[in-house]
Each structure stands twice: as C-alpha cells, then as structure tokens.
Design goal:
Elements (H helix, E strand, L loop, with lengths): L4 H13 L18 H7 L43 H12 L12
C-alpha cells in the first residue's frame, strides 16, 4: 500500500522530532611512542652476532631462539653457545600436550 504525500510528510516529521539515542563514541587512543632502543632491537643486524665472526648476513638468515642473528655456519645452538634452554621448553610443551589419563577402578564381583 503506497503512502500518500500527506502521510509521508507526517511520517518524516515524526522521525525528525523523535530523539535518537546513539551509543557514545569512544575516544581514540593516541599511537604509542616507540623508543629508539625498541626500533633498534626489532631491526635485523647486518653482520653475524657471533663474537669471532663478522660475516655479512644474507636475506635468508633467521634469528636464533636466543634472539640473536647468526650466519649459516654459526646458526646451530652448539656453535654459538646458545643461552636458550631447549630442555625446559620441551618439557613445558609436553606437559601442555599430554593429557593425564586415569583409569577408573573396577568393581569386584
């Protein structure tokens, strides 16, 4: 059923006069300032961080779990005396993944 012009204008006037409640706007948080130390720590160094090696790092070299970057010959934990505790990480991972199973007791007849 189409609205007539009078019905349409009266409906518009009602809508204009009714107060509409909108949720309050949350103020935007300003971006956090990053200190120069944080930016230096996040960037990849250009040279191997082993004490005796000064090879240039390639694009494919990754960070060790001790959060240092090493060249291909020093990337293994044994070659650079890694400070990361692999054994502790392995035990915590197993504790999370393994589910303790407790068998229910059987009733004796």
């Amino acid at each position: 059923m189409p609205l007539t012009d009078d019905a349409f204008t009266s409906l518009l006037n009602k809508l204009k006069n009714t107060p509409q409640s909108f949720p309050p706007l949350k103020p935007e948080e300003p971006p956090k300032a990053i200190s120069p130390k944080e930016t230096l720590q996040k960037t990849k160094p250009k040279m191997c961080q082993h004490t005796e090696c000064k090879k240039k790092l390639m694009l494919s070299d990754f960070a060790c779990r001790c959060e240092n970057y090493y060249c291909g010959s020093h990337r293994h934990a044994e070659s650079h005396a890694c400070a990361f505790n692999f054994k502790q990480q392995g035990t915590t991972l197993l504790e999370k993944q393994l589910v303790k199973s407790v068998a229910s007791k059987l009733d004796r007849i």
